[in-house]
Amino acid sequence: MSQASPSAVLALVAAAGVASAQPFVASSTNPNLDRWMYPFNSTPGAEVRAPVFAALSQSGFDDRDSQMLVRFDTASQIPSGQPLSNYRVSRVRVQVTVSNTTDFVFYDPSADPLSASFQTSDPDYVADADAGTPIEIYGVGFRNGRTIDTFLENTSFGCFGFPVEGCRSVFAADFDSNGALFDISRHVRQKVPTTAWAIGTTSSLTAGQQIPVGTTFDLELDVTRLGIQQYVRQALSSGKLMLSLTSLHPASGGPGGGTSSDYPSFYTKEAPGGVPATILITGRTFTGADFNGDTVVDFFDYLDFVAEFAAASLESDFNDDGVIDFFDYLDFVAAFAG
Predict the structure, then answer these.
(1) Residue range of the domain that includes 87
(2) Is 56 domain-assigned?
(3) pTM of the predicted model, to two decimals?
(4) Residues 158-186: pLDDT tens digits?
(5) Percent over 90 (pLDDT), the chain
(6) Is residue 1 part of a domain?
(7) In whole angstroms, what is the distance from residue 70 CA to residue 107 CA?
């Protein structure tokens, strides 16, 4: 490609209309893996439902005791193996459907303070201001030598016998102050705040209503958070995205106790007639200044970038520093003219 001076590019901008970009859209109505991640699950990967509940401050058990793992393989719809900077993710939406009748589970579309999950005798305890407990989703981390490629639906939980605290091979994870993933399974007793990557919402209920069987929740990942954006880019590059659905609904009667009406459960792909988790991912891939991904670097790429930059879109974070500023413009122009 011949180099273009900034003045020549601006002349083209003045003379031409904006070309629309070519985003990718990947979707799946069936996860490649869904798994009830619970230490006393005797049939891993074969359950028709996956409960999510907590064993708050119970010694020997994780606070987020029962989690649900979902994995979607994306390589057939989104090119894998590319550098992370080639991906721009604009949306990740996961949907899950409640599989049980919940007598004591109420719709809460907002984040609860960590202190609301402390023991009432704790001097730091503060009661939740609204009814219910949110359904949340996070990324995952691995231990015990497991990876996203080696942890399968029927792989062992991670440890045997009691206690089962802090030893699951795959765990719900958030980012610490250094940007590293850490296990949030015991964060209540450790008093470490987390920020859910998405909170389940539904248009069929108002806050505080009891959640009926068949309710579908939307979980829209906050891809404007730099860590989440990078996590999803890494997943698309590898071709596999794994997430953990979790909640702090306490299981009454102690760890694993109570009845299924005390906490929500969700259909797995093994459920006859059930509605398994689904996913929708949108964004674009490009190389260097090929901003619209059509394999040709031309003034349409410049026009598309300028439009996104003017809108302060995450897609115009050309240097991947999590900030939309003039350095992104300068870096794009340098790549365009190079």
Answers:
(1) 24-283
(2) yes
(3) 0.86
(4) 987 788 899 999 999 999 999 999 999 99
(5) 68
(6) no
(7) 22
